[in-house]
Design brief:
The structure is a single chain. By secondary structure, the protein is an all-alpha fold. The chain has one domain. It is 66% helix and 0% strand. The chain has 8 helices and no strands. Helix 2 runs antiparallel to helix 5 and helix 6 packs antiparallel against helix 8. The radius of gyration is 20 Å and the shape is globular.
């Protein structure tokens, strides 16, 4: 086996590794196309910082690109958990208010819709891969009492920490780059009023900063609820397998 084959065999150990990485490449290529169209057609040669690719719905692209190199165990499990909770949440939530999906050009709007549909697909796919790995790694103890508690919480905690770090990075970008134009990464720039549906209505009662903090907390809560849904699917699948063996 040559070095190239050894490299691929070590990092692309299953089909999901290849599929996720390929999706990341597609998303990166489409994002570069989007940035070029926004800059040279919509912006007439001027970069529009509002569309800088560091929103919650952009982060999965970066996760997918590094996914095969994270290695098995907690790193990849945390990446899968981020995709099946935060990525899925971002893909679903945007359809509660589709105004943010619309662009000056129809092809950009189409790209936006397809992007978020892909996020939902990736979130569901990541959840399926995550469940498959749990069953595969615990096959010998499949029907033991201990295995009913085998849906680990630690990957979700790490994915939540990753989300919080992304929020901090987004805030640093907001505060350091807003001198060059309007920028509102993660929609948490304190210089602009919260625009997200529901949370913008909290501003008169609690103020803009509080609305931003509530929005971040609500995102974590929403991802937690999705994690509980995946836990329920895990338990339901386990019971179904038990019944089939009897």
């Amino acid at each position: 086996m040559n070095s190239k084959d050894h490299f691929l065999a070590r990092h692309f150990t299953c089909v999901s590794d290849t599929v996720f990485f390929f999706c990341g490449i597609i998303m990166l290529a489409s994002e570069i196309w989007k940035q070029l169209v926004l800059t040279f057609i919509v912006g007439n040669g001027t970069y529009i910082w509002w569309y800088f690719p560091f929103q919650l719905c952009s982060i999965p692209m970066y996760v997918l690109l590094v996914y095969p190199w994270l290695g098995r165990g907690i790193p990849q499990s945390s990446a899968l958990t981020f995709l099946m909770c935060y990525c899925l949440l971002g893909g679903i939530a945007v359809f509660a208010d589709t105004s943010g999906l619309h662009y000056p050009l129809a092809r950009l709007t189409l790209h936006s819709y397809l992007w978020h549909i892909l996020l939902i697909t990736l979130g569901v796919g990541a959840g399926c891969v995550y469940l498959h790995r749990i069953f595969k790694e615990n096959r010998r103890t499949l029907f033991s009492h201990a295995f009913t508690r085998a849906f680990p919480l630690r990957p979700f905690l790490f994915s939540t920490l990753f989300y919080i770090i992304c929020c901090l990075i987004a805030e640093c970008l907001n505060l350091s780059l807003d001198r060059y134009g309007i920028i509102n990464m993660f929609y948490i720039n304190p210089d602009y009023k919260m625009q997200q549906i529901v949370f913008r209505d909290l501003i008169p009662a609690f103020g803009n900063t509080a609305a931003i903090l509530i929005y971040i907390a609500a995102t974590i809560l929403g991802a937690s609820l999705l994690f509980l849904v995946w836990d329920l699917i895990f338990r339901f699948t386990l019971r179904f397998r038990k019944r089939r063996t009897h």
